[in-house]
Design brief:
Elements lengths: L8 H16 L6 H12 L3 H15 L7 H36 L6
Length: about 110
């Protein structure tokens, strides 16, 4: 079960929009400075907010990196890969067991 998120998604989106407005607006503030200012107003840690902003920029294509949808897909594929490896190990063990049973003499001639 995933951990409960500390901040609601709506608050995340709103705070990222506020930071991007400061960065792209007339003030031309730096991302770190804007995150500090907005974070102080909303009670969000500056570095947490900066991470959200970076991820939003990646998702929008404005910055290089792995998008949220790509990250979710990679996570799902890694989970499926682990399940397949587990199933493979079980099948190898079962196959070795049954091969040993077939090689064992039965005593009937």
């Amino acid at each position: 079960m995933p951990a409960q998120k500390k901040y609601p998604e709506e608050m995340r989106e709103r705070s990222v929009r506020l930071v991007l407005d400061l960065v792209e607006g007339e003030e031309q503030a730096s991302v770190t400075g804007a995150c500090g200012r907005v974070g102080a107003q909303l009670g969000i840690n500056r570095d947490t907010l900066r991470g959200w902003v970076k991820q939003a920029q990646v998702d929008a294509g404005a910055r290089a990196g792995t998008t949220t949808s790509e990250r979710d897909r990679i996570k799902a594929l890694e989970k499926e890969n682990a399940e397949l490896r587990r199933a493979n190990a079980i099948l190898k063990t079962a196959s070795a067991f049954f091969a040993a049973e077939l090689d064992r003499p039965t005593g009937n001639k």
